[in-house]
Amino acid sequence: MTTPPAPPIAGDYAPWFHAKALSGSDRYAFHSVGGRHVLMLFFGTASQPGAKAALEVVAKHREVFDDEHAVFFGVTVDPSDVAQNRIAQDLPGIRYFLDYDRAVSRLFGAAKDAHRYEPFWVLLDRELRVIQRYRIDAGEAAIAELRKRTAKVPDGVAPVLTVPDVFDAETCRMLIDLYNKDGGTASGFMRDVDGKTTHVLDDNFKRRRDTSIEDAKLIQMLSQRIARRVAPAIERATHFKATRIERHIVACYEAGKGHFRPHRDNTTFGTAHRRFAVTINLNAEEYEGGDLRFPEFGGRTYRAPTGGAVVFSCSLLHEAMPVTKGKRYAFLPFLYDEEARAVREANLDKLAAAGGQDVKQEGAA
């Protein structure tokens, strides 16, 4: 029997999980909340006086939870909390997990077994690391620390590489012309639905159009540029040798429309093999907005010069900021190695029939 991991303590990264959210997603991805401080309250059942008092503390300090700097998640294991309207989602910033199987509570050490439950608060930083755990009657202290932490949070530096001169100006313009000739198609994102990685379109989460490159000679030339100029930079910085490339697309984010909200690139069955994301800007001087941001490290944004690449781990939470003027064109492959290729092949049967075309496009880097 496998021993379950020990509950996180101060300094540890909190475990990632999916759980049903009250008045929200049936499979809320906890890892997506990075970039903001998180206060969790494992109260078990709001029928208990201690839990009721703790929730009153949250209500008293309602203004703290704005979804920009801080969020609150309450965790209940009692279905009667919903049936009797003891709890309710209150956006922005106030959400609840319906942890009826106690899976989340076990991860954090609140559920000792089917009968014993230890209620407490947990405060997390914007990288989802545990700052401190507090007894359920210490809510004021938890929120005081939260206020202190969010009053002034300095920007960090995200662990990204910038690689100049991957493509020359002629190649960049040729790829832009290729996109404009085709016009692109709506680009979605991948999500696991009922055990299958499915292609989803949602303009509120992502709005972009993509053109797939089909010409074999052009694909070979672009792949060779990646292999000679991007892969060595990754190997020098991380001791990781990228040997495979996924998809050859030109993407376009348009002013007033283009954006991609915070996400990670390897959190589904069909994308678990991805190791590094590569964003090669094709016209960096011709648009405003549209830069990359890594919320867990603050508000700093990143943009490579025309022909240059921003390269980062697919595990990093990141977003493409809205384009405010012009059109942003980019070439956007993913890189991985032979070990990850085995993961990709093992998961091919988990791709939904109507989606995941990008994931199916593979070549040598």
UniProtKB/TrEMBL annotation:
Give the record's keywords alphabetically: Dioxygenase, Iron, Metal-binding, Oxidoreductase, Vitamin C
Q: Which domain of life is it from?
A: Bacteria
Q: Which Gene3D superfamilies match?
A: Glutaredoxin, q2cbj1_9rhob like domain
Task: Spell out the protein name for this chain.
Answer: 2OG-Fe(II) oxygenase
Keyword Oxidoreductase appears in the UniProt entry:
yes
Q: What InterPro entries does the entry give?
A: AhpC/TSA, Oxoglu/Fe-dep_dioxygenase_dom, Pro_4_hyd_alph, Pro_4_hyd_alph_FE2OG_OXY, Thioredoxin-like_sf, Thioredoxin_domain
- Record keyword Metal-binding present: yes
Q: Which stretches make up the Thioredoxin domain?
A: 8-155
List required co-factors.
L-ascorbate
Q: Which residues form the Fe2OG dioxygenase domain?
A: 244-338
Pfam families given in the database record? 2OG-FeII_Oxy_3, AhpC-TSA
